[in-house]
Amino acid sequence: MPFVYNFAARAGRKLERVARRVVSLAVKKSALSEDDFDSLIATDSDFKSTDAYIAALLRDRTTITVRDHDRIHRLARNCYRDVIDRIITRADDALSNKFRVLGFDPVSFGDRIKWGTDFVVDVSWANDYYLSAPIVIWNNESDVKLPWELSRGHYLVWLAQAWQHTQESKYAEKTIALIDDWIESNPYPYGINWTCPMEAAIRMINWITSIEILNHTGRVDIDFAKRFYRNVYQHAVYIEENIEVIGDGMNSNHYLANLLGLLLAGHLFADLPRGRFWKRFAVDELEKELFAQTLPDGFCYESSLNYQILTSEIYLIAYLVESRHGGFSESFRKRLRDMFRLTSALIKPDGCLPNFGDGDSGRTLVFDAVDRQNPITMLDFGALALDLPELRSSAKRPPYDSLWLCGPEVQETLKSVEDCPRKVRSSALFRSSGLATLRKDDLYLFFGANPIGSGGSGGHKHNDMLTVDISCGLTNFVIDSGTYRYTSNQSVRNRFRSTEYHSVPSVKGIEQNRFIPRILFAIRPDAKVSVRRWESNDSYDFIEAEHTAYTRLSNPLLISRSIYFDKNERLWIFRDRFDGRGQYDLVSSLILGDVIPQIHDSKRVSLNSKVDDSTLDIITFSDGWLPEVVAHEVSPEYGARREAEKLVFSYSGSGPVEMLWAAMPHRGEQEDVLTHRARAVLRVLSELELNRVGKTGATRSLTLRRRSDKD
Fold first, then answer.
1. To the nearest whole number, what is the mean pLDDT of the chain?
2. Are 264 and 325 in contact (CB under 8 A)?
3. 626-634 and 595-601: which strand pairing?
4. What's the CA gap between 428 and 437, in Å, rounded?
C-alpha cells in the first residue's frame, strides 16, 4: 500500500504540475527587465531610485559571510597559507576557463565556456523554454549534472578570495566577467540551466558570496551591481514559482536547497515585501523539513551518507545565517546536533565515510577549494558552531570555511575547548536508520540495515540491505561500489545501485528491490528490513538483522545476517542465513578495496593490503560455498570509475542453508601468527551455542549466542 499510495500521490501532484506547465507554455514567462526592476523598487521600497537602492545594498547588506573580512584575511595569511595556495591554484585555473567538475578530469574550454554542454560526450542542450527542455536525453550518454555543476559557480568564491589575498585585479575582473557571461549565455527562462530550482539556488548562493567578498574591497561598480542584483532577484522569483515541493513526507534535498536560496534572498531583499515573504517562508519550512527529512536518530531519510553531508551543510548554513537575525528553535538545533553525532559515529579510521547510498559529490558553498566532501572538516565546523567539542578532530585550527560563516572568533572558540575530551568512537546502533558500527581501536565494521527512505519511494536508496564495510587502520578492505552516474545511462545507473554491486548475501541475479524502467530515482519497496537484536559491551558486539526481499519468490526465502565482534580477539564472525524450502543459487559477496586477494582453498581467502602489511583473512566454516574473485568496478566519487575486484562465495542447492564465516585481521604472514589467529577463531566458536535445525547437517542453520546469555 505505501508504494501504491506514494506513487498515486506523486501522480496527482504531477498532474498539477502538468496543468501549470500547460498554462506556462501558453503564457510564457519573460525575464525581469531593467524597467521592471526599476518599477519594482519604486513601487515596493522606500528608495527614490534603483541606484540608491543598489548603493544601499552594496554599503549595508552582508547576507552570507560575516562582516569582518579584514580580520579573516589576516588570520588566513598567518594560519592558512596552504589553503590560500590551493585557492589561488584553483582561481588560476578559472582564469583560463579550466574547471574540475565533480570526479571528472579537468576540462579547458578555451575562449568560450559551453554552459549548456556535457563536455565529456560533447552533447549540448538547446536553448528551449525551460518547461520544454528535456533534462534526460535517452541513449546518447549525456549527463545533465555536468552543465548544472559547472553553473553552480563554486570557482567564483575562489576567484573573489584570490583577489582579496593577492589584490591582483585579474581575479576580481574574472569573477565579474564569468557572471556576466553566464547571464548572457543563459537568458531567463531558456536552456538547461533553468530547469532545476536547486541548481538556481546553489548558483545564487555562490554568486552572492563572491560579490560580498569583492564588494568589501570596493571592486563592484554600480552598473554591474544593478545587473547582478536584478538577476539574483530573478533567480529567487524562479525558485519560488517552481519550488521543488512534493509533500506528504516525500520532499528531498532539492527542496532544502530551494529554501536556503530563498532564505538568503529574503535577507538580501529584506526591504521588499517579496523578500520578507521569502525569509518567513524559508524559516518556517526549514523548521518543518528538518524533522520530516531526518529520522529520529539524525540520519537523512534519503538513505545516503553523501546526502547526509549535503543536507547537514544546508541546515548548518541556514542555522548560522539565521542566528544573526533571531535564529531557529532549540528543537531545530537539537536535531541538527543529532545529525552531526550520527555522522561522527560512522567515520572510518581514515577519516572518510562509507560510500553508502547514492552519492553525487555535491556541495553547496565551498570556501576552501576542496570540492570533494570532507566529513572531518564538516564535523569540526559543526563541533564549533553547535557546541559539540567532543566531536572535533585533533586539528589545531578551525575549518577555513568557519571563518567566513562564524567569524574569526572561532579561533578563540577552539582554544576554549582544547581541554575538553574528544569522544572516542565506539560501537553504536542507530535504530531508526538501521545503521551500526562494530568497532574498537583501528578495527571498523559498518553495517547497513537501512529501510527504503524518501517516503517509501527510495529515491537515493541502493539495494544494500545487510551490507558491510570493513577497515583496519588506513586500509579499506571491504567497501561500497559507489554511484558513478545518474542520468547518462540507465543500465549503468541501475548497475551501481544493484544488489550484486554491494557486499550482501542474496539470491543470484535477483534484486532485493526491483527497479522501474526509466525511473532512475525510485525502486519498488519489495523488502522490509529490521534489526532483530543488538548487544554491545566492553567484550563484544552482536547484531542480527533480516529482510523480506525474497519472500516474493515462488519458493519464499528469508535472509538474515548476524555479526559477532569479539573485541579481545579482534575478529568478526558472520552468519548469513537463508531460510527457505527449495532449490536456490545463492551468493554472498564482498566488494574489495585497496587489497590483493589470494584464494588459498575453499575455506580461506587472504585480502592483503596495498597500503601496509595488514591482511584480512576470510575463513569459512560451512560446506558447499565456493570462493571466486571476479572483475568489478567502483566509483569513489561522482563521474569517476576505476577497476576493482569482488570476492563472491557461491552456493547451489536446497535450503535452508547458511554461510558461517569469519573476518580475521592480522599483520605479517608468519605461519605462527596465522595459527594463533585460527585458534582464536576456534576459541570464540567454542564459546558459542550452536543450535542445529533442518533436515540434515548440510542444511542446518546456526543461532549464535554466548552461553552467558542463556535464560
1. 90
2. no
3. unpaired
4. 5
3-state helix/strand/coil string of 532-567 = EEEEECCCEEEEEEEECHHHHCCCCEEEEEEEEEEC
- Alpha carbons 575 and 561: distance in angstroms, whole number: 6
Q: How many CA atoms lie within 13 A of 510 on its CB side?
A: 19
Nearest alpha carbon to residue 626 among 659, 655, 654, 593: 659
pLDDT digits (tens, 9 = 90+) for 42-73: 999 999 999 999 999 999 889 999 988 999 99
pLDDT at res. 672: 62
Asked whether the beta carbons of 591 and 481 are under 8 A apart, the reply is: yes
Question: C-alpha cell of 238?
Answer: 524562479
0.85 cut: is pTM over it?
Answer: yes
Average pLDDT over residues 156-163: 97
Exposure string over 237-259, b if 16+ CB within 10 A, otherwise e: bbbbebbbbbeeebbbbbbbbbb
**For residues 635 and 481, is the Cβ–Cβ distance under 8 A?**
yes
- Say if residue 420's pLDDT is above 90: no
| pLDDT tens digits, 14-26 | 545 554 554 455 4
* Percent of the chain clearing pLDDT 70 (strictly above): 90
CA distances from 83 to 101, 161, 166, 376 (A): 19, 11, 14, 16
Note the Cα 146 to chain centre separation in Å: 17
Report d(CA 414, CA 395) in Å as an integer: 10
